[in-house]
Structures are given as structure tokens and as C-alpha cells.
Amino acid sequence: TWKWVVGPMFLYLCERLVRFWRSQQKVVITKVVIHPFKTIELQMMKKGFKMEVGQYIFVKCPAVSKLEWHPFTLTSAPEEDYFSIHVRIVGDWTEGLFNACGCDKQEFQEAWKLPKIAVDGPFGTASEDVFSYETVMLVGAGIGVTPFASVLKSVWYKYCHDATNLKLKKIYFYWLCRDTHAFEWFADLLQSLETQMQERNNAEFLSYNIYLTGWDETQATHFVMHHEEEKDVITGLKQKTLYGRPNWENEFKTIARQHPGSRIGVFLCGPEGLADTLNKQSISNSEADPRGVHFIFNKENF
């Protein structure tokens, strides 16, 4: 038995030593942004830190717990001079981080008073391959939208810098959310991209659909009353929020018709049930002919 145990134990100890070494490297919190509904954004800098879109890191805050490491998806783009995460306050550890950063106080917090942070990573995900396709479908469910914040920011930076050499030509973005609280911080990013794309006369580059899956009769009535307004009453975007869940079969067939003979990347960050649905649709809507349309499914789960 010991022959089978020694190898894995040695690898485990090596991984713990590497994590300990990384945790000693200095990380500086440059900015803390408080978003609506108790979501905070931590912008940080670390010497030698390099990232790709959609990657994630492990974070430890000794002021909250000396042993706990928690994974967070990076929401910044590689082109930015910092890296950032968004933290939703939903438990004891995140509440402790919220208080340690002084977000529970009204006065301005000095930088030297911010807590020390240890960072391990970044670690790769399927979202890194998004620039390998000309057409992509990005599907985020709830907080699973965070990897696509990094993707969309990076796409915009690359588009502004050199649009002609950017292989990616079309993005179909879907966000499924149970309640309106989760829309707040991400809607600002979409609103900025929407405005900038229109200014460059390329509004068709990004097509997005936001689905509110949990809603009641009062919300539906309010939606009907304000449907004719220029901007959506929930997100402030020109694209109206949709209620219910998307008909994935129709979505896949429509995209297949618009991009014949293409390899289309399907990227999901969400629950396993949705992954099964998208995987089946990717297979059933891909043609047997090598020259036909093919959907390539990629996923990551929280």
C-alpha cells in the first residue's frame, strides 16, 4: 500500500509548498470598489503576475482566516495594469473580507489600512480558447458571468488596438439570472461596450440576450408597462431583458443558418444541467460534413 501512497503524498506536499511560497509574495490592493447589493471589486497588483482571459485565482485573507483559500474568477483583462476579482457577500468569509476592507464604514479608507491578501494562481480554464474561433456563444448563468467580464474587456481592447488582425468576428452572449440584483455591476460593462460599438458603427459585433429566470407577476406587469421605452427598465441597456429561459434549439439553429461552414465555440460557465443541454444541442446541430457548421462545446462549473 505504501508504494501507492508515497507518490501522491509527495505530489501533494510539493503543491502545498508551492502554494506557501506563492502566498509569501507581496500583493498590493490598489483599489476597492463597492458595487450595489453588497458586491465588492478588489483591484490588485503582484510582481510577475501574468493572466489570460477567464482564468481564476485562489485568495486568502489572513485577517479573516489564516487557513482558508477561496477561488475567484478574474474579471480584469490581460491588457489592464492590474488584476481584479468581484466578491459577492454571501457568507461568513466574504462578510469578514467586506469588513476587513473597511466597506462597512462611511469614511474613506486609507490604502495602508487595507488587509494583506495572499494570491495563488492564476489557473487556466476553457475560456482561454475564445480567441481561436471566428464566432462564439458565451453562456453565463448567475455569478457564472464573471469569466466573460474578462473576455469581453479583452475583446474590446484587442478590437480597439487592431481590429483587422482579430480572428473573433462575432459574439453571441447569453446571461441567465434568477433575480435583478445580480445585474447591477455587470450591466455597466455591457452598457459601455454597447455605446462604444455604436460609436464605431459596429453594433453587430456583440449580440447579447439577458434572461431573468425568476420573476413574479408584479415584475411582469411593470415590464409590460415600460416595454416601449428606449432603454430597459432593469439594466438601462437598449437590449430588453427577456423573461423565462431561452429556447436553445431555436438559438442554435438560427446561429447555424447565419454562419454556414463555420466552427463555432460554445463556452459555458454554469450548472451541470445547463451544460448537458448545451452539449446535446452542440452535437445535434453540428453537421456530419467536415465543411459544414460545427459547434465546439467548452464548459467550466462552479
UniProtKB/TrEMBL annotation:
Query: What is its subcellular localisation?
Result: Cell membrane
Reaction(s) this enzyme catalyzes, per UniProt: NADPH + 2 O2 = 2 superoxide + NADP(+) + H(+)
- Alphabetical list of InterPro entries matching this protein: Cyt_b245_heavy_chain, FAD-bd_8, FAD-bd_FR_type, Fe_red_NAD-bd_6, FNR_nucleotide-bd, RBOH/FRE, Riboflavin_synthase-like_b-brl
Concerning CDD domains, the annotation shows: NOX_Duox_like_FAD_NADP
**Broad class of where this protein is predominantly found:** membrane
Report a single Gene Ontology molecular function: superoxide-generating NAD(P)H oxidase activity
Gene Ontology annotations for the cellular component aspect, listed alphabetically = monoatomic ion channel complex; NADPH oxidase complex
Q: What is this protein called?
A: NADPH oxidase 2
What is the originating organism of this protein?
A: Odontophorus gujanensis (marbled wood quail)
Q: Which gene encodes it?
A: Cybb
